[in-house]
Write a structure and sequence with these properties.
Blueprint: H1 9-32, H2 41-61, H3 74-100, H4 112-141, E1 152-157, H5 161-172, E2 178-184, E3 194-195, E4 198-199, H6 207-214, E5 218-221, H7 228-241, E6 244-247, E7 265-266, H8 269-272, H9 282-289, E8 293-297, H10 302-313, E9 318-323, H11 326-341, E10 351-356, H12 362-372, E11 376-379, H13 386-391, H14 393-414, E12 418-422, H15 433-452, E13 456-460, E14 463-465, H16 471-480, E15 485-487, E16 493-494, E17 496-498, H17 499-510, E18 518-521, E19 527-528, H18 529-539, E20 550-552, E21 572-574, E22 580-583, H19 594-606, H20 610-620
Parallel strand pairs: 1-2, 1-5, 5-6, 8-9, 8-11, 9-10, 11-12, 12-13, 13-18, 14-17, 15-20
Antiparallel strand pairs: 3-4, 6-7, 16-19, 18-22, 21-22
Helix pairs in contact: 1-2, 1-4, 2-3, 3-4, 10-17, 12-14, 14-15, 14-19, 16-18, 19-20
């Protein structure tokens, strides 16, 4: 007997040549209801000859003998059905010939071609589908070895597309030391059904019972569009019964809507904060960017690099990556070049340019804009660390304010059609130097838009998970060092978004700008920082207060407990996109002597006159309340642990 693993297409050709004549004979037997065909033998033999000629040639023409049938799909089954059709049509031709020339009667009854089609398809598809199913069959029929199994017993939460694809790959690969015991799903319609031979055992409320009965070692959350709140609940249930939990990526991480075992990973804090997938108007974004010259400042940073990735997908004519740090620019450039090279030949003609420059040097920026003549500019370059900018106010002013002015001046000189500045929620009622400088940069954008009539806008949002300087990275380092995790205040809350989510909304806002607006991204509910710290400790398999302490250190200079998204006096309204708000009256807040004050800031910065800078910033942003709260002792009492299931996003 030929082993399943050594079967080749030549074996299927032999099988076709044997089984197809049998299918023809059975078609006549079923039609005539007798084994002896009598006078119909001539028609049967002629039909056999034509079948053996046409069907293998059709399969060969359709490249059916060059397919790897171990991974056969519905598409392959349709190919085989197409190959059978010419032989069926030939049966009708033989009938027509018999009617026109009765002397050439070859005895093919009219119903035989209809009977022959399913029999022929079964004859050629059966052996191929058997090979397709053989790994699963041999796995299920294999006699288990004596003694306890060393394979992990896995329960898949989610009986939808993601769960089905994951289980299919696990069953296909015999190297995985994994045994799937079944599915869990909250949809009662699926309960009791089987997917790839595995039962849907119930919903999440049955998790403890199923873990005990099936001796489950691990639960995989296989729902690509599941909300963060649901992930919190499922994770808490798994922790309660003592099983490990992993997760498939979210929709924004999947490649080609395909779930693979290599993508399964530990649950991250980003998953616990996951919201509903953003519905981006891809056609509008692509229409804005496609075929145009796009420049991204701060292109090596976390936001800037993701902007470059998503802009590249819209196929601009040129992508100019401008940044101050050569290493980060080098890394994103290499990544984008690899993406371009991975595309089909001739599939894209995007030119990528790298520019190492400091936006504080106006002559250098003007030269760059005149050389590349960008049509769209995304301005993501900025100093963002609040405590560092409190200690270095001159650099905050020269980079975040004067650098933005240099870019706007160069944009006007080069005829830039669209300009989008990435702002911050810290620009609203600011208490820090960084936030105030961002607010002044917004005023510069409004002023330029009002004087030029161009769609120059600002986009305001909060903290971004995974960005450089993110509190998440700090917490990871503190956990790795054995703790403690330091939190400034038990009531501190912040808005959070993932990097891809923030960039998608920035691009969406860019399509809506008419000039002088501020767009605010819907950040969801604010998150308590102390809850974030607890989650990260528990996701690391540790316990708060036992393995890792949380200690409060007090507010740092420039910090405030709550961030805001709306400036008093601005009138906000929803845009056609449910996740984007707009302040249409933002330009009304621009001081009449804005440029004079900006020049005053430049002179004060050149002379390191911090007092003069602070006075000017206070005039430009009357809401600026600068204070330096006293630090509390780092020996404060540690935080008591709280069950993850009882915590809801927003505290």
């Amino acid at each position: 007997m030929i082993p399943m693993t050594t079967i080749r297409n030549r074996h299927f050709l032999i099988s076709d040549l044997i089984l197809l004549p049998l299918a023809v004979y059975l078609s006549f037997v079923l039609r005539l209801e007798r084994w002896d065909l009598g006078n119909s033998w001539s028609g049967c033999l002629s039909f056999m000859v034509s079948t053996l000629l046409f069907i293998p040639l059709s399969i060969l023409f359709l490249r059916g003998y060059s397919r790897f049938w171990r991974y056969a799909s519905i598409e392959d089954l349709l190919l085989l059905a197409t190959a059978v059709i010419p032989a069926v049509l030939l049966g009708f031709v033989l009938q027509a010939v018999s009617l026109v020339w009765p002397s050439l009667w070859i005895g093919v009854p009219r119903s035989v071609p209809f009977i022959f089609f399913p029999l022929a398809l079964s004859s050629i598809a059966g052996p191929r589908m058997l090979l397709r199913l053989s790994p699963n069959l041999t796995e299920r029929l294999r006699i288990p070895p004596h003694g306890p199994s060393t394979k992990r017993r896995v329960l898949v939460f989610g009986a939808g597309n993601a769960g089905e694809m994951l289980v299919r790959e696990l069953q296909r690969s015999r190297r995985m030391e994994t045994t799937i015991v079944g599915f869990l799903d909250d949809d009662p319609v699926k309960h009791g059904m089987h997917i790839h031979g595995l039962p849907v055992l119930g919903d999440r409320q049955m998790l403890r019972q199923i873990v005990e009965e099936q001796q489950v070692d691990q639960v995989i959350i296989a729902i690509a569009s599941v909300s963060g709140k649901a992930i919190r609940a499922i994770t808490a249930l798994c922790e309660g019964v003592g099983v490990k939990v992993k997760i498939v990526p979210g929709l924004n991480e999947l490649i080609g809507d395909c779930v693979m075992w290599s993508q399964v990973r530990d649950v991250r804090v980003e998953d616990l904060l996951r919201r509903e997938p953003i519905q981006t108007d891809v056609s509008a974004v692509r229409a804005l960017i496609h075929g145009r010259r796009v420049l991204v400042t701060g292109g090596g940073g976390s936001i800037g690099s993701e902007l470059c990735r998503q802009v590249l997908e819209c196929e601009p004519a040129q992508l100019i990556i401008l940044g101050h740090g050569e290493n980060s620019i080098f890394e994103i450039y290499n990544e984008l070049i690899k993406r371009l090279n991975a595309r089909p030949a001739g599939g894209s003609s995007v030119q990528i340019h790298t520019v190492i420059a400091d936006i504080r040097f106006s002559e250098r920026i003007l030269t760059i804009f005149r050389a590349y003549r960008p049509e769209i500019v995304f301005h993501a370059a900025a100093h963002k660390h609040v405590p560092l900018m409190e200690d270095n106010p001159v650099d905050a002013v020269t980079n975040n304010i004067l650098g933005t002015r240099n870019l706007l001046d160069a944009a006007l000189a080069a005829g830039v059609a669209h300009f989008v500045m990435i702002s911050s929620d810290k620009a609203v009622n600011p208490t820090s130097i960084m936030g105030t400088c961002k607010r002044v940069a917004e005023l510069l954008v409004h002023h330029t838009a009002a004087n030029s009539g161009k769609p120059y806008v600002a986009v305001r949002f909060g903290n971004v998970l995974g960005s450089r300087g993110s509190v998440v990275l700090t917490f990871k380092q503190q956990i790795a060092a054995g703790g403690p995790i330091t939190v400034t205040d038990p009531e501190m809350r912040r808005f959070f978004m993932t990097i891809p989510e923030a960039v998608q909304l920035v691009l969406q806002a860019a399509t809506m700008g008419r000039g002088g607006e501020v767009f605010m991204l819907d950040m969801g509910e604010p998150i308590k920082i102390v809850d974030l710290a607890r989650d990260m400790i528990e996701l690391s398999g540790l316990q708060v207060g036992h393995d890792i302490d949380i200690r409060f250190t007090g507010l740092r200079p420039g910090e405030k407990l709550y961030e805001e998204l709306f400036v008093p006096g601005e009138e906000y309204e929803r845009t056609p996109h449910e996740k984007v708000f707009i302040a249409r009256t933002a330009s009304a807040a621009v001081p009449t002597r804005l440029l004079e004050y900006i020049e005053d800031l430049r002179i004060a910065a050149n002379w390191n006159d911090v007092r003069r800078m602070m006075t000017t910033l206070q005039v430009l942003v009357p809401q600026f309340q600068h204070s330096e709260p006293a630090r509390v002792s780092s020996t404060a009492q540690p935080v008591a642990p709280a069950p993850m299931l009882e915590r809801v996003v927003g505290g």
